[in-house]
Amino acid sequence: MSFDDDDEDKFVSDDDDKDLENIRSRRKESSNFEDDFFKDEDFKFEEEAGENVESEGFRIKRIKKKKKKRRAIFKILGIMLILVVIAVAVVFWGVPWIKSMISTEVEIPDEERISIPSSFELTQDINIVIACADQDLLEPEVSSIVFSRYYSIEEKLTSLCIPVKTLLDIPGIGAGLVGDSVEVGGMDLLNLALERNLGMDMEINHYILMDIYNVVNKLNGINLELDEEIVVKNYDDNSTFELKKGENLIDGTEALNFLKFFSGIEEDVPIGNITKQKLILDAVIKKIVGENEEELSANLNLISDFIDTDLSMEEELKIFSTFSEIEPSKNNVYPLDVSSTELAEEEIVYLPDVSELAEIFAMGESVSEEVTVTAEETVNLTIFNGEGTPGLAKQVADLLEGKLFESGKNKYNVLEIANEPTEKFDYDITEITIYTDNAYVIEAATDLKNILGVGNITTKENEAIESDIIIILGADYKAEEAGTEDTQEEEGIIEINILNGEGTALLAATAQEILENYFNAEEEVLEVVETKDADNRDYTQTEIIIFDSREKVNELAQQMQERLGVGIIKYSDDNVDNVDISIILGSDYTSQ
After folding, report:
1. Domain housing 577
2. In-domain check, residue 135
């Protein structure tokens, strides 16, 4: 049973109104608190059990942390598993691929292998141009051009190094640089330009254009053999690098810069040194051929993407194999004979002289005949005695002046015979120095070394002198070993001349009469060819100068010294009067 407020009022007296009002008020407050979310007991519970609530919060946090930690561990394990899978893939699939990119020892499928011919020998004559360029074979910047002719019967290779800045008549273009023709029309245009401008009635059969940078790097470098130390410019950063005398392992960058340095673009580098470019080609070919057929096959496959050629792979194999086995004496190389001039845009360029090429390459003769590659040009010589034996230089001069070409033309013209200028006579080794870059002079220097049997050949092309070659004879030269006639023969009259070096009238004629009466009293021993004044009258000491090494001449000089009572004996090869002895009378002769 329930009561509302009015019913409650009926059972409560007026005296109790105040108490009733209080009761209603408390009931209302109680009703309001029952509807609140938070109650007093709630706060009371919090205070009394606060410690338990706090402990429960830490457990939740620790559980959450453990879950996060597990998730992190699972992630790390997953990443590590992925890395392991990647590593295994690299080992089994990636490494062989990488090795195939950097190693010459590549595994080549059977269907891609070169067909190895039964014989590596090149059995026919060929004319071939080999050019080297940078890494772009579509628009190449050519750094070397070498034309070569192979003579199959003689197994001989003759090569011509052509400066890339040689000015030629380029077919379809007009006057232009031979190196630029490759960029404009490829190797076919280069071949056509050479055929029309070299003055030889011949056809170029094949060509090879190499990206020398990548070819050398793919071969893991090449061994370049040098006979001297060389400092080469690096055109990438204008620095330099040194190559030692002997064997040098060089990479693609060094090979490319070496070719550029000796291409004719450097004014301070003699143009004759362009033949050093052939050393790079020989080294590349040798590295391609390797030690056996397998290496040759593998290397040709390795570099095939960096060569532009009209040869088949089998033809390349034969050419490289044959060229690598040519004897050094049959591997001849010449620079194109050129003269330099200047153009506003190109600075220094070269004008070719092709007059000797037909003879060098013997285009009109059968390859079965012996070919003389040296042009019939007389070489001017100066011969110095650097050893001291009297008459040594004259002996060599007489020997060389008797050397003739088949036509009867003299091979050598001796301009001067004399003692070495310092007259120290301390040369142990004979020196043969070339003062020009003409091919026939370079060939003559080799011929001279063979005739003398001794000598070191050097070049000084930057010095302009009248002689093409200067020979300074050293102690290593023995006249009898070079084929001279016996100079120790005791027979014959000794020829002398007498010079007045003091000034007294008829002094030379008086000495002539004294010497002839004394030495020719019983038989004619000497002949006074000439009496004359010396180059000056300031001689204070008489000189007896011997120009002949015969013992009889030396004995007579000593006897004349005793007869005259004065004088010193000297030796010289500066025999301008062509006699055995010259006497220059000084003031010591008249004052005795």
Report:
1. 494-590
2. yes
